[in-house]
Amino acid sequence: MRYQLYYWTGIQGRGEFVRLALEDADADYVDVAREEGDEAIMPFLRGERPGARPFAPPFLKAGRLVIAQTAEILHYLGPRHGLVPKSEAARLYAHQLQLTLSDLVVEAHDTHHPIASGLYYEDQRPAARQRAEDFRKTRIPKFLGYFEDVLDKAGGRHALGRHSYIDLSLFQVMSGLSYAFPKAMKRMRRKLPRLNALADRVAGRPRLAAYLASPRRIPFNEMGIFRHYPELDD
Questions:
Q1: Which pTM does this prediction carry?
Q2: Cβ–Cβ contacts within 10 Å for residue 185, how many?
Q3: Could you tell me the CA-to-CA distances from 150 to 36, 65, 97, 159 in Å, in that order?
Q4: Sign of the CA dihedral 41, 42, 46, 47?
């Protein structure tokens, strides 16, 4: 099956979590909007295409199925590409962990858009500084401390005891936070040895190393979820 991934052009965003799984699995897929433009997404959002109607990208077309929401897409892809253990308990636990990562991604986004997504960052800077300070001091340690413990209890190398899409998503979160908050992440480095080692291992996986070095990997930028504003990393 050739998958069709739909996500906005020019940013990694939530679509990158799906791309990493597809690349690591060597799955056959096309990043539709990067070939046809963002307008290719809109008929699905307006409910003009067959299948389940997505609220927003990313969504994946797999045959006749249209699957939206990052965690749901990965829940679908995981067992089909060996990116999750076979047991139901393990698949549900993976889904739980991915949903927790989704919560972290929302909070990371809200550091630069704490009042309204429709406002420019420049229109909410004071609130952003206040939100980012709390995120750096309390929320990053809480989330990453939890996942450091998850790794520890699973043997130290993988979140589920073996390679899975959760490892890929943890790599993306660590990469994004290191881009957005380099000073804060540097200060935390000694407290997160397992997460940092996991991120390094994931980046070294042959298929992902090739992807990360290719033009298909869109660089982090100030249009996506993880944005680097120096004043938010004080």
A1: 0.97
A2: 19
A3: 40, 33, 9, 6
A4: negative
What phi, psi does 60 have (nearest 5°)? Answer: -120, 130
Helix or strand (DSSP H, E) at 233: none
**Tens of pLDDT along 174-205?**
999 999 999 999 999 999 999 999 999 999 99
pLDDT digits (tens, 9 = 90+) for 144-159: 999 999 999 999 999 9
Placement of tokens 């000694």 in the chain: 190
Handedness of CA 48, 75, 194, 211 (dihedral sign): negative
Sorted by where each starts, the structural domains of the chain and their CATH numbers stand as: 3-80 (3.40.30.10), 88-233 (1.20.1050.10)
Span between the terminal Cα atoms of the chain, in Å: 47
Question: Could you give the CA distance from residue 44 to residue 6 in angstroms, rounded to a whole number?
Answer: 10
Helix and strand tally (H, E) in the chain? 11, 4
DSSP state of 220: P
Residue type, 213: A
Q: How far is CA 225 from the centre of its chain?
A: 9
Please answer whether residues 224 and 172 qualify as being in contact, where contact means their C-beta atoms are separated by less than 8 angstroms: no
Tokens linked to 25:
């699995």
Cα separation, 13 vs 31, in Å, equals 13
Q: Which is nearest to 208 in space by CA: 20, 82, 42? A: 20
